[in-house]
Each structure stands twice: as structure tokens, then as C-alpha cells.
Write a structure and sequence with these properties.
This protein is of the alpha+beta class. It contains nine helices and ten strands. A hairpin with a 2-residue loop joins strand 4 and strand 5. The model has no long low-confidence stretch (mean pLDDT 88).
């Protein structure tokens, strides 16, 4: 099957990444590459033959093509097909016999059912980051890709993968009585706010401020339902010094002012 092996001793090296849509039908190039090739399809189908084995990679599916093994296009890839690709190098000293040792893992040859998954979002972020000029992000990119490969090997296992964004959610949930503070996040996670914001947005599809606001508003709803505190007191307990601003935020999130919400029946 020509599966790819990676290790915890050396980071992968990204050579090129991309996100393309076929403007016309074409056949996959015939080559024996010196690099490994990851293909992830979001629309249409990629047909590729590796060492005589035919593969049809459809939406939500991922395939690895191994370095040093000939692959080519036996069948035509249709117009409109959209896919991600990543060309990368791994430790060239790794042998097939190493796959079972504790320092090496065998990547799945192909995976299915990844459409709109956390893995797809993680890959999309890596591809996007690779083409940015931010030196801090580029310095981190090979580490991010190693983490992505590791996540692939853990996908589907019963234990839940605790992501950085999960940890951020837990941290912000405990700050439901305080204003949003980016410096606290940087201190807690030892990463720049820009980096934390990018990871969180990719994994949770919302900003950290939006998540924190929702946490604070949920606390306000509980207090409106279960206490006799007035609006100003509730605003204060949720970290809002200005009760008028709190009311505007509350209405933007719920569609009702705090006083209107308090008068609604319990089941609302």
C-alpha cells in the first residue's frame, strides 16, 4: 500500500501547498516524486494510480502518495474538482521496519468522512499560513503540520483529542465575570494573541471575543432567571461596568433587552 511513516525525532519539511479548482478536465501528472504528496478533495474527484493501484479521491477524502513511488493519471479528472495538496519531506532514514516502534507512526493511506471536520479546518489553516509572509507563522508551520499528521493517526480513536481551542474555551468560561483580556490569554498559553486568535477562529469558527461574550450573556440569563438582582447588578457580575452597554450587547445576542427577557415565560 506504500504507507508513509513519520517520527517524533524530526519535523516534516513543507515544500509547497495549495488549494485549487480545475478549470478544465485533466490527467494527473506522471511522476516519481522525491517528496510525499497529500491530497484532500472538497468537490469532484481526483483519479490517481500509484504503482498500479487505482484511487478515486472524493469529497471529504484524503490520500497520501509516497515519495519514490511512481504515480500517474489513468482516468480524467473532471472540470470543477477542488482539492488541497501538500508536498512535504520526512526523515529519509525511516524504514518500513520502524513503523512499529514507539518513535514512529504509520499514516493512514487514505481517510474518508472528513468533510467539515476539525481535520479539514486544520489542513486549511496550514495551507493558508504557508502562503503568508508573517515570519512568526512560517517559523511554526512545520510544527503545525507535524501536529496535523499526528492528529490523523489519532482520528477515530475513542479518547477525545483536547485541542488548544478547547483549552481556551475552558479558560474563558471561568472568566464569565470579567471583561475580555487578551494579555491574560497570552500569559496563560505562552503564545501571541495573534496566534491564539488564528487557531481559535480556525477550530471553532468564531472569535475568542464572540465566545467570551456568549459565556457572559449565558451567565446574565441565569441571573435574570434565578435572582432578584437588578440589571445594573447583573451587568457588574458579568464584567460590564456600563449597564447601558451591557443591555445593548445582551439585546444583540438574544434579540431582547434584559428587562424584556426577564418578563418572558420560563420556557423561552
Amino acid at each position: 500500500m506504500h504507507q508513509v511513516i513519520f517520527s517524533n525525532k524530526k519535523l516534516p519539511l513543507l515544500l509547497e501547498t495549495g488549494f485549487y479548482q480545475a478549470s478544465s478536465p485533466f490527467f494527473h501528472v506522471n511522476r516519481t516524486a522525491e517528496f510525499h504528496d497529500l491530497i484532500f478533495v472538497t468537490q469532484g474527484v481526483i483519479f490517481v494510480t500509484e504503482d498500479g493501484q487505482d484511487y478515486a479521491v472524493r469529497p471529504g477524502e484524503l490520500l497520501f502518495l509516497k515519495a519514490g513511488v511512481n504515480h500517474w493519471g489513468r482516468y480524467e479528472i473532471p472540470r470543477g474538482t477542488i482539492w488541497y495538496y501538500v508536498h512535504f519531506l520526512l526523515d529519509q532514514k525511516v524504514q518500513d521496519d520502524d513503523a512499529g516502534s514507539k518513535n514512529y507512526r504509520l499514516l493512514p493511506k487514505r481517510m474518508q468522512g472528513l468533510a467539515d471536520s476539525a481535520l479539514e479546518k486544520e489542513l486549511a489553516q496550514i495551507v493558508q499560513s504557508f502562503h503568508q509572509s508573517d515570519e512568526e507563522i512560517l517559523w511554526q508551520i512545520n510544527t503545525d503540520f507535524w501536529c496535523f499528521l499526528n492528529h490523523l493517526t489519532q482520528w477515530g480513536k475513542k479518547r477525545k483529542q483536547i485541542t488548544l481551542s478547547d483549552k481556551i474555551c475552558d479558560f474563558l468560561s471561568k472568566k464569565d465575570g470579567e471583561p475580555f483580556d487578551s494579555s491574560l490569554l497570552e500569559k496563560e498559553f505562552c503564545l501571541s494573541y495573534k496566534r491564539l486568535a488564528a487557531v481559535f477562529k480556525c477550530q471553532k469558527n468564531q472569535t475568542m471575543q464572540e465566545f467570551h461574550t456568549s459565556v457572559r450573556i449565558q451567565k446574565a440569563i441565569r441571573l435574570l432567571r434565578t435572582s432578584l438582582l437588578n440589571i445594573s447588578e447583573i451587568a457588574d457580575k458579568c464584567g460590564y461596568e456600563d449597564s447601558l452597554y451591557f443591555s445593548r450587547v445582551f439585546k444583540k445576542v438574544t434579540g431582547k433587552s434584559p428587562s424584556e427577557f426577564r418578563r418572558l415565560p420560563e420556557g423561552y
